[in-house]
Design goal:
Keywords: Transferase. By secondary structure, this protein is α/β, with parallel strands linked by helices. The protein contains 16 helices and 13 strands. The protein has two domains: 273 residues, Rossmann fold; 83 residues, formyl-coa transferase, domain 3, CATH 3.30.1540.10. The strands form four sheets. It has a six-stranded parallel beta sheet, with helices on both faces. It has a three-stranded antiparallel beta sheet with strand order 9-10-11, covered by helices on one side. It is elongated and about 85 Å long.
Amino acid sequence: MQTSPTHPGALSHLRVLDLSRVFAGPWAGQMLADLGAEVIKVERPGEGDDSRRLGPPFLRDDAGQPTRDSGFYLSANRNKKSVSVDISRPEGQAIVRALAQSCDVLIENYKVGDLARHGLDYASLRALNPRLVYCSITGFGQTGPYRKKPGYDSIFQGMGGLMAITGHADGEPGGGHQKVGLIVSDLMAGMYASVAILAALEHRDAVSGEGQYIDLALLDSQVAALSHSAMGYLVSGDPVPRCGTKSPTAAPSQMYRCQDGAVMLVVGNKAQWEKFASVMGQPQLPGDPRFATNQDRIRHRDELNAILEPIFFSRPKQYWIDALAEAGVPCGPVNEMHEVFADPQVREREMVVHMQHPRRGAMPMLANPIRLSGTPVQYRMPPPDLGQHTDEVLVQLPGYDAARLKQLRDDGVI
């Protein structure tokens, strides 16, 4: 069930103005919100964040009928307050400036130069609040020949090299470049943004007394996330092979099909290889010169798999998972989604929480994986309806009265 706040969160002293939409920015904002920050989400009146409409699937209400809440939107916007403001209007721009003066952080993902036209760029807001940490998340960054181009995750997966190393090898069934099922460029950019924001806040509070500007790009994030694969290319000049589920640096290390599903196996060292061979009923394999070392096994992977594949297929997957676990060899099931959330380890770690939603009651949500002993993550508010907190926030921060709110609403500004 939803946890109730019993203590201040780790970031409960911070206020964040979230002008971002869709995913990378909202993902960063949700991370800060989960850790206790007050996050104010600014959305267009009547329209809101584009992600609200990115479905199916949509949340089903207590009667089983689809609502207007997309799963995509719900995944990145809990613990936030929604304020609807038309920032194309001078009155709306004034509201954002007033809010920014009382915030520690601003997150935005508008096209390069868009917010400068409204007087909401970093230079303009820094003049009002020198302590503001201002994070701009764009596809290609603020500099370079592509800086004004639009882009989405799949574009960056292709441009950033992820698709080059994902999928089966050319010539194999289904071979060729593949896109990862998750929007990993957005996820990585959101995580990098969270780290950058916290670093800038620490520098402000411990060193300079001033905020700073963060220029964060999805393409940069995707290239950086190539990590060891990119380093392998940079130090060797050799292209990184597409191996499907196989590891390019270890064998046997891949998916094997069993009678009732599949398992992922990783044999990471000599001791594991010897134990694995014994479990498989093939104790002679470590003495075979084709398979003596890891490099030997990589060179002769097809011959090794010709031996292993029928053995794996002779038993159900749980047999191998249990037998290899007892021997200390890493092996796990290849789970479908329903199996993920039925897994006893996932259940024990409480990776699903429930929050009270006005149209669903107890709504299941993915938990935040961060475990802090003194200031644990709190699930305070479900993802907000569009403009749900407009009056509350504008009364609390700029100090608008009822007459001013009515005028702004009548004029279509909020």
